[in-house]
Amino acid sequence: MKSSTTTGFASAVLLVLLCGSTVAFSLNGNYKTIIDTLAWTGDLSEIYSIIERNQIANTTIHLRSVTVFAPHNEAFLKITKQDSDDEYLPCYHITNVPMKLEQLGKSVFSELDGNPPIWITKKSPEEIYVNQAKVVYNLANYEHNNTFGKPQVLHVIDQVLQPLRMKKNSPQNVYNPNAWEFMENAEYLDLDSYHTNTFLQRVQNLDKKSVFSNQGGHTFFIPVDEVANYPKVKPEKIDVKVIDAHIVPDNVLFLGPTNEEEQFKTLAFTDMLKVFTSLSKAVEGDKTKYYVSSDTVVGDDVHPTGAVVAEIVKANIPVRNGVVHLISRPLMIVDNNVKQFIEQSYKDREDSVLHRFYEEIMNSGGDFLEKLTAMPNVTLFAPSNAAFNDQSIQPYLLNRTYIRSLLDLHIVNRRLSIDDIVAESIDKVQTEVPRKDLFFNVVTSGKNRTLTLEGGGVNATVVQANLAATNGIIHIIDHVLGIPSSTVDRKLATDPTLNETNYLGQVSSLNDQLGDVQKRFTYFVPRDFAWKRLAIDNPSAYKKLFMPEYSNIARQILERHLIIADKVFTMDDLRKEANNNYNLSVHLPTVRDVSMYIKIKDSVEGYSIEWRNEWIHVHRSDVRCTNGIIHVIDKVLIDESDVEVNGAIATKSITALVLVLAQYLVFYYFN
After folding, report:
1. What's the rounded mean pLDDT across residues 213-240?
2. Three-class SS state of 358
3. Is the Cβ–Cβ distance between 112 and 88 less than 8 Å?
4. What's this model's pTM, rounded to 2 decimal places?
5. Strands 66-71, 151-157: parallel, antiparallel or unpaired by DSSP?
6. How many CB atoms lie within 10 A of CB 239?
7. Does the pLDDT of residue 546 top 70, yes or no?
8. Phi-psi region of 617 (alpha: psi -120 to 50; beta: other; left: phi over 0)
9. DSSP 43
10. CA 329 to CA 221: how far, in whole Å?
11. How many helices and strands in the chain, by DSSP H and E?
12. pLDDT at 126 over 90
């Protein structure tokens, strides 16, 4: 029998998992008033203390009907205490109507002076946010009347709500401003020393006050005058459409509840111009930075397509008609070429996402930047800091000549956004390295699209897409292309175009040996397209190969594609050997057929191999792995006899086994 201590510990652990924090307390079995619950619950002592010290809040909770949004003590540990906390925080966590979670609308009015709103975001019945804070669902909806019989409700939340505050000793008070009044009175507000005068001046000059005064709930991204190490934008470039791109109408987007990369239409989304915005974050070490991106998918002569990213320098400022985020620079304005984008935006900031990329460019001579400048239309796939910090690639980075050659693998001599790749069904494009292509795959999940690519044997994912420059597009990726970091088996498992071969290799146990770093593998891997082609040409053979009882046959066929030797064979190696043989056949000592011969053809479309009098296109050549090399081909090397003969043998074996088993059962039964 379990002890009560063990049971109690298990319950606490379960509650921690349910609540999503280290807070482990319960309101079950509690019959106290709300104020007494705050007083007697140790994990709510901080919010109780500030309510008790504030006469208005203390009186309100004792005398009136209220809803209290109570941050637990852990939430208070995450904020920096300010002298004005006792003045602002207590009343901003209280509203004078008792409401359970299901009764909450889009906003409620707080008891702070001016009754500024608290904004509600409901992602599901059990996932509800109050401004930036998440309601701890298992510690919500606690109801009790106070001593005067007034109904009250308590919801525990995981963050402290932060209202808009005045500067200390401000000569003027501003109560519950809308976004326009916020900008107009910014000099009196506590905005961490940020100023918004330039943007305010442009809004005034272009008579756009009304879009910041609209009633309802909206999101406003307001550029500050200047942030260190960010390029300053000429004010005259902030036109009417640019201003509209800083507003997301009818959506109140606090950072916490908003899905990363989900796109929202801005006020600049019209018939002739289409501009979205999305939020993202970057975590490096113990630092988390948030960004907003404007993505112009349909531009005009003044506003080119592509994304412009700004850092959110002060987030989640609630105002009467929504939420304000202060950002490092105006959105939508493209005024740097690709070289300037890298230099001006990132080179002096050690925490910038392309800092390591810039370092490697300069370490390899710096001429790569000049090459980017000379290209009128270029797409750059730029590896992030995390990509260059991968420990497995560090030895390669010491070879400056090698790294310089790899940099060219990251550029394409045309402008390619994700929309271009989707609209034109582009699955392959030539890089600046001869015979080295990039291969694309776009994965769609709901409203989100993710671009993955393969180059030089490395799979990468675009983590920040469509960054706009005057002469091209930048996509930030999570791996350095061309530096192998996966064994052959891991490459098969992670490449989305090789799923069928990987599956057969797993069920037949062929893949078990492909992780051996002491061996060198050359593998002609049929891509999924090749297997679909087999399903059409020979559906019976295809069906059998994917049956578990035919896994031994599948293995034999895959072994025909595999060479295990003391070295790997690139397509150029095989081509040279063919040339030495007067363009006759090349011997391939595969695991299945030690006397297998193929011919090699080299053309502008790439390499092809001839097997059994049929030319087969090599879709991707020289995909390098840490223990081998893969050549992706467009046809499975299979004869009809492979499945028919072996299938007959397999069927006879099974039949024989059944007969033996039947004889045994008869013998056992009658004896």
Report:
1. 88
2. helix
3. yes
4. 0.77
5. parallel
6. 15
7. yes
8. beta
9. G
10. 10
11. 24, 29
12. yes
CA 491 to chain centre: 21
**DSSP tag of 331:** S
Residue with tokens 């292309």: 481
| pLDDT of 208 above 70 | yes
DSSP category for residue 590: B
* pLDDT, average across residues 387-406: 88
DSSP character string of 518-530: TSEEEEEEEPHHH
Q: What are phi and psi of 210, to 5 degrees?
A: -60, -35
pLDDT at 650 over 80: no
Residue 548 tokens, joined: 């578990």
Element (H, E) at 280: strand 274-284
In this structure, the strands spanning 606-611 and 133-134 are unpaired
Residue 436 DSSP label: -
**What per-residue confidence (pLDDT) applies to 346?**
59
* 360 within 8 A of 387, measured Cβ to Cβ: no
Report which of residues 658 and 429 the model is more confident about: 429
Note the residue count of the chain: 671
- If DSSP states are collapsed to H, E and C, what string results for 202-270? HHHHCCCHHHHHCCCCEEEEEECCCCCCCCCCCHHHCCHHHHHCCEECCCCCCCCCCCCCCCEECCCCC
Three-state DSSP at 196 gives: coil
3-class DSSP string for 101-129: HHHCCCEEECCCCCCCEEEEEEEECCEEE
Question: By three-state DSSP, how is residue 76 classified?
Answer: helix
Average pLDDT along the chain:
88
Q: Residue for token digits 């008869």? A: 666
Strands 66-71, 247-248: pairing kind:
unpaired
**How does 396-428 read in b/e, with b if 16+ C-beta sit within 10 Å?**
ebeeeeebbebbebbbbeebbbbeebeeeeeee
Judge contact between 327 and 460, C-beta under 8 A.
no
CA–CA gap between residue 108 and residue 117 (Å, rounded)? 5
Cα radius of gyration (the chain): 32
pLDDT digits (tens, 9 = 90+) for 352-386: 778 889 989 998 888 899 999 999 999 999 999 88
Assigned token pair, 228: 């260190």
Q: Give strand ranges (E) for 470-605.
A: 472-477, 520-526, 562-565, 586-588, 596-603
Nearest to 631 by CA among 527, 531, 535, 559: 527
Decide: 473 and 451 in contact? Cβ < 8 Å.
no
Residue reference for tokens 């045994």: 664
Name the more confident of 121 and 447.
121
**Do the Cβ atoms of 221 and 277 come closer than 8 Å?**
yes
Q: Which helix (H) or strand (E) holds 567?
A: none
- Written as six digits, the tokens of 604 are 């502008």
**Other CB atoms closer than 10 Å to residue 447's CB: what's the count?**
11
Beta strands 378-383 and 472-477, pairing class: parallel
Q: Which of 151-160, 311-320, 419-428, 557-566 has the lowest mean pLDDT?
A: 419-428
User: Distance (Å, rounded) from C-alpha 49 to C-alpha 86?
Assistant: 9
Q: CB-based burial of residue 509 (10 Å sphere; 0-12 exposed, 13-18 middle, 19+ buried)? A: exposed
- Rounded distance, CA 163 to CA 131, Å? 10
